[in-house]
Amino acid sequence: MKNVREQGAPRDAAKPGANGRTPVLELDGVTKHFGAVTAVDNVSLTIHKGEVLALLGDNGAGKSTIVKMISGVFVSDEGTIRLEGRTAAFHNAKQARRAGIATVFQDLGLVPTMNVWRNFFLGAELKSGVRLDVKRMRSETEQALERIGLRNLRSVDQGVTNLSGGEQQALSIGRAVYFEQKLLILDEPTAALSVKETNMVFEYIGLAKKQGLGVLLIMHNTQQALQVSDRVIVMRHGSVAAEFEVKGVDPEMVLTVDAAISGVG
Ligand SMILES: Nc1ncnc2c1ncn2[C@@H]1O[C@H](COP(=O)(O)OP(=O)(O)OP(=O)(O)O)[C@@H](O)[C@H]1O
Ligand SMILES: [Mg+2]
Predict the structure, then answer these.
(1) Measured distance CA(97)–CA(172) in Å, rounded
(2) The pairing of beta strand 183-187 with beta strand 37-48
(3) Are 75 and 69 in contact (CB under 8 A)?
(4) Ligand 2 mean position to 64 CA, how many Å?
(5) For 88-145, how does the pLDDT look when each residue is reduced to its tens digit (9 = 90+)?
(6) Please, are residues 54 and 231 in contact by the beta-carbon 8 Å criterion?
(7) Whose CA is nearest to atom 16 of ligand 1?
(8) Residues with CB under 6 A from ligand 1
(9) Whose CA is nearest to atom 31 of ligand 1?
(10) Which of 14, 157, 172, 215 has the fewest CB atoms within 10 Å, i.e. the most exposed one?
(11) Which domains, ranges and CATH numbers included, belong to the chain?
(12) What does pTM read for this prediction?
């Protein structure tokens, strides 16, 4: 397994058409300072259509800051972010969502006091004239969750807090697929999940990938990251330290990636 970055591979190898892969999102020299701290330092990376990219790194490496710049929570100090080739400078998360970036933050952005279908259509409610089209939103939610394989839900009328952590992730992923988002970002999607639930979420990620979404995953567990992603990027002290194409999970690869995370070797 090669560290693609150290092999001197061109960073912009994925311009439209290159390798037959279409870039969904490109970061080019993106930098973010917080006072004297450089949280993200000259980061360039690309996520393609139908590709799962995992971003790994120790605490404080700059992962969440990258997610926040992509999703419009922070504005970068330097560099450019392009969505489907067009410069994207979002000033808030809503703008980013409208442009096709679905970010599932750790708290999932679900409203605990609302039921499943209300959460599904939150901020994008279907209307019939001036009234909410409840009937259609219920049935659309049922069908969308059915399509993503979430079939054991008792009812879309139940409170979202009745759902397991994995089911809540599935709901968020299903929503991104339904609204035809281009990029799905999941920040530590499996941090609080059991093994079984983690595998379930990985299946849903696979479905989002099949629909052609680019997926950016923030992970802490290397083994899991290798299991679900096509490529991993390791960040250290705000910079990209290494990049690997994932060909499968083997113990040696886990060790190599972990060494890159801790900066050994
Ligand atoms: N709003 C902020 N104000 C000041 N400093 C910040 C802010 N957000 C992040 N930082 C700093 O930027 C650096 C990168 O933080 P970031 O949250 O991006 O790391 P991370 O890789 O997501 O870490 P973790 O794995 O712990 O979530 C850290 O040194 C952090 O203290
Ligand atoms: Mg973080």
Answers:
(1) 13
(2) unpaired
(3) yes
(4) 4
(5) 988 888 889 889 998 887 655 678 889 999 989 988 899 999 999 999 999 999 988 8
(6) yes
(7) 62
(8) 34, 37, 39, 57, 59-65
(9) 60
(10) 157
(11) 18-112+165-262 (3.40.50.300)
(12) 0.85
